[in-house]
Amino acid sequence: MAIIEPFALGIGFLLSFVYGYVPSYGTSIAILTVIINIIIFPLTLRQTRSTKRMQDVQPELKRLQKKHKDNKEELNKEIAAFYKEKGINPLGCVVPLLVQMPVWFALFRVLREPLLFIPKSESLFLDLENNVNILFFNMDLQIPASEISTWVERVPYIIVILMVVATALFQQKQITKKQGKSDNPQAQQMQMIGKVMPIFFGFISWTLPSGLVIYFLTGNIFRIGQQALIIRIEDKNETNDKQEKQKEQVEDKEETNQEQDPRKNRKKRRRK
Predict the structure, then answer these.
(1) At what angle do helices 210-260 and 41-56 cross, to 10 degrees?
(2) Mind listing the pLDDT tens digit for each residue in 182-197?
(3) pLDDT-derived band of residue 259, with 50, 70 and 90 as boundaries?
(4) What's the CA gap between 114 and 108, in Å, rounded?
(5) Are 167 and 217 in contact (CB under 8 A)?
(6) Among 111, 128, 182, 267, which is most buried by a count of CB atoms within 10 Å?
(7) Domain range list for the chain
(8) How far is CA 28 from the centre of its chain?
């Protein structure tokens, strides 16, 4: 695919650049993953906030579901309007995945045929050509687990794949742990995607170059920490907002009481 070529050349150059400072193929892929995730951080931030808002509005959604339980069409209209009012995109979690697709395909090509996309003048090109420093925890990152001949040799590959699935499931649970079951088709679709995607990545990891599996695993671990930080900041901001609103309500109530009972205030002043 012609559209993938520029991405593949860019990733090949960046990977070889990192390898020039860290002469480990697996570590270079991990560092490359962190760089890519930092670049797409704005999308990840939007995704996390959108998903967290979905959690926070669950009580209101359940109220709407109860109110329109006999009218699905009206329920969907009400929920769509509610999402629009709150600025929530039920499918927001899919956008960062779609944006990363060209990167995945490009990285797949780079790891499948690295000598085509890595500059010939770089040390990584020479090492790959001569099979030097390409093992990472006894794994050949240029081939998938499915091409390993014996099950004993497949053990480290299987462990990494299981870690990909486990971290993906944890990442999904981390951001949706407060989200209950919904009757809205869009929300149900989002929840289904969240459950299926970790299994899907584990399945395809069996036939993908192991370097790409390292990319998946590093990305999952990085986003777990990233999401934890975002959620903590958002919760703190929400707590501060609630405290400010409560303070404003108390002040408004005091002002209202003073306006309604001016005589009482005058008597108090006289006594003083």
Answers:
(1) 50
(2) 555 555 666 677 678 8
(3) low
(4) 9
(5) yes
(6) 111
(7) 4-58+90-245
(8) 22
